[in-house]
Structures are given as structure tokens and as C-alpha cells.
Write a structure and sequence with these properties.
mainly alpha; about 80% helix; 6 helices
Length: about 150
Amino acid sequence: MGTAAYIYIGLIFVIDLFVSRKNIGWTTVLNALMLGFFIDLVGNVLQPFYTLSDTLIFRIVLLAMGILMVSVSCVILIRLNRGKNALDALAWGLTEKVKKPYRLVRICVDAVLMGIGWILGGVVGLGSIAAVFLTGPTIQFLLAQLDKWGKKT
């Protein structure tokens, strides 16, 4: 899984060089270098819990936690302003070019990437579809909340 992530991030990074160069920074590179390792690490740590995933409620909770954790990490990188992760750099750059809300652009980018993954033999399930339609809106919501909270202090 981690090796596939390195290939995927590398390809997105190359696209970013043409579409969204200003959104690339040292955190973009660090994220790209560490992502595959942590996918493998977390996968190995969670392996013993896979038997618990037979219950629907457990799967829904894990999915919601995963979408929230991904969204929070994206918000941190966006607000750190030292470079977004490769996928957000692409979505952010496209948002600026097409003048549409980030959440909509991110849904489109995620849907295209999910479609490519499916064509290449990947599995698309309800969790994949939920992630496509919830990650971008969750990131945009959290950014707005962070902005509101920052203005109060």
C-alpha cells in the first residue's frame, strides 16, 4: 500500500509543478516522503482490529474518524502555510483557476482519482464514495471554523 502511495503522490506532485507551484513547500515534500511509510505502519498496527470490522457501526465509526483525521491534517498543512499536501495543492490551484468553492473542486478531484484507481483495479466501496463526497466539504468547514475562532481571539 505504501509503495502505491509513493507513486500516486509522485504523479500528483509533478502535476502540481505545472498547476499549482505556489502551493508547494517543504511540508509538501515532507508529506510526500512520509505518507507511504505511515500508511504501512498504521495498516500493520490496525491489522489485529480488522476482525472487529464485521459490525456496521464499527465500520461507520472508523470511516468517520478517518475522514475527520485526514481533514484535520489537511487543515493544519493549509493553515501552516508552508506548503499543502500534494492533493490539496492540486485542488487549491484548480480552485483558484476555475473560481469554484474548494469543496466542489476537491470532490471532483477525488472522484477523478477514485475513478482512475477503479480503472486500475482498485476497490471502490461505500467508504470510498463517502470519502470523495465528505473530505472536501469537511476541510472547507473546518477552515471556516478555524477562521471564526481565530478572529475571536
